[in-house]
Design goal:
Strand 1 and strand 2 form a beta hairpin. By secondary structure, this protein is mostly helical. It has a two-stranded antiparallel ribbon with strand order 1-2. Helix content is about 50%, strand content about 5%.
């Protein structure tokens, strides 16, 4: 872009190139700091059991950025915990037929567990 009111600015001037590079480096540094602070904040909130984004975990809803248990899903969550304690696995993929029978996926679906996203695997 050429300005009619300002004198001709040489973009190849070494001082201008230095200033642009320093300002670019400072912007990149500030962006990296912000990204690190945001990640640390999300990690801390997750450690404290708060909602950090995405799809809420099964058995909970999100109200004002905090998890709230859903009574309609808590019975299913309790049943899954009991089945996990009995040795059931999460998925039936790449397992023997015996292990597949112990999988939680068919039990959840057969037990009437609602599907939040897609199908149980």
């Amino acid at each position: 872009m050429i300005s009619v009111t300002e004198p001709d600015v040489d973009s190849n001037d070494p001082t201008r190139i230095l200033i642009r590079q320093v300002l670019g480096a400072l912007a990149q540094y500030e962006k990296t700091l912000l990204k690190a602070r945001m990640a640390a904040g999300r990690r801390l909130k997750a450690e404290r059991g708060g909602f950090t984004g995405g799809i809420p975990r099964f058995g909970c809803s999100v109200v004002r950025h905090e998890y709230v248990p859903l009574a309609s899903e808590q019975k299913i969550v309790a049943r899954i915990r009991v089945q996990r304690a009995e040795g059931a696995r999460w998925s039936q993929r790449r397992r023997s037929p015996r292990q597949a029978r112990r999988s939680l996926a068919p039990r959840r679906h057969a037990g009437g567990a609602p599907e939040r996203q897609g199908t149980w695997s």
